[in-house]
Amino acid sequence: MSDPSTSRPARGRPPRLDQARTVETALDLLNGSGLDALTMRRLADAMGVQAGALYRYFRTKEDLLTAMAERMMAGIRAPAGGADWSDRLSGLARALRQALLAHRDGARVFAGTHSTGPGTLGFAESCTGVLREAGFSDADAARAALAVVRLTIGHTLEEQAALRTEDGSPADPEVLRAAVSSGGYPHLTAALPTLTEADQAPHFEFGLALLVAGLETLRQPRR
Amino acid sequence: MSDPSTSRPARGRPPRLDQARTVETALDLLNGSGLDALTMRRLADAMGVQAGALYRYFRTKEDLLTAMAERMMAGIRAPAGGADWSDRLSGLARALRQALLAHRDGARVFAGTHSTGPGTLGFAESCTGVLREAGFSDADAARAALAVVRLTIGHTLEEQAALRTEDGSPADPEVLRAAVSSGGYPHLTAALPTLTEADQAPHFEFGLALLVAGLETLRQPRR
DNA sequence: ACCTGAACACCGTTCAAGT
DNA sequence: ACCTGAACACCGTTCAAGT
């Protein structure tokens, strides 16, 4: 079955490269060193090959990054479907955040690409499906799904950016604290303890809860 | 007053470069060719100088990008303050989107940097101020402001990404349409007409309205 | 003090040539 | 068919040297 001599013609040597393994190696490299250090040359090195060889499998680096984003989205499993629509929608948003957090700079990779693969489309299908089945119109379901996804991307982008300077160096919170307390920002000063919290999950949950509460008022106009 | 011979010592030739003019030129270049084409060498060229000279005014390219983001934020004028808190908050969010839209790839520049300058902090101060004066707790004001800013960034990032492929080439909507209609995505198919609308403002307004409605339920728990 | 010139250590991408 | 080697046209950044 998996014997290369019986499965397909396969004349010549078996290839040392393929799309799936290359994407996997690229995601490992991403986790190890971050997006800025992910170059075609370094990826080729990790695969034991010259940089030019990658271009037989990916037309450009952007195509590779798109394949990486699609691979991240394909890993998402929608949580159990028994709950009501607001729990299911929240679960999808949390799953998206987790999928992006699973790889260093995951949100940056996702935000910089536009996959139309089954993972990405499947996730969008789930979001709009939950909303349409809850009774929202096609247009409202589309726009609500966009809002949830875009809030999640915006949030996770900043969450991972804060992680970048986490260890050593003048950490981001310190710089912000200094800038705020030096000037005349009374409201920001009051908000600062919350803004500089290490755990970003409550911030995400708060924004998500606002969107869901807003959607609920849309379903029950005045009650 | 502005005579260089009386204002300051200024021995030697007057400098051909300064921070403000460099940032302005960089923003012009951004509008003309986009972020990917904005290199230190091309910027130096536009200023009639060698690339190395820029490093006397900006420690790194990232510092330049941060200054550009700060310049964009400094241009924001908060809309008139007579309205109620929800209108003022929406006005701030709209002003942020407009400021990012004012420059090609503006959202990408902003999302990739972390200015702590007066423009950026002043905007954050306005957002938290509106919310705290409306009676929200410090923590809720902080998190609500984060949600509004992050939704706006997430939205504008995608809005400008869609603009990138606007003219010529296989435009993004077409690719999406083809991918969706080929597979088994019934909900996405229903949502497609809305998702592929050219005008993105309604999408933004919808998400913003959801956040504001969510905040209103927080103020009046059950009524 | 301010800028040039030139270099260093890289990039993404292409493509003839080898096997 | 698949990969190498080498090149092309760039990058960001540094720094002695000039003026």
From TrEMBL, chains A, B:
It comes from the Bacteria. Residues 16-76 form the HTH tetR-type domain. Residues 39-58 bind DNA. Keywords: DNA-binding, Repressor, Transcription, Transcription regulation. The keyword DNA-binding applies. PANTHER family: HTH-TYPE TRANSCRIPTIONAL REGULATOR RUTR, TRANSCRIPTIONAL REGULATORY PROTEIN. This is TetR/AcrR family transcriptional regulator.
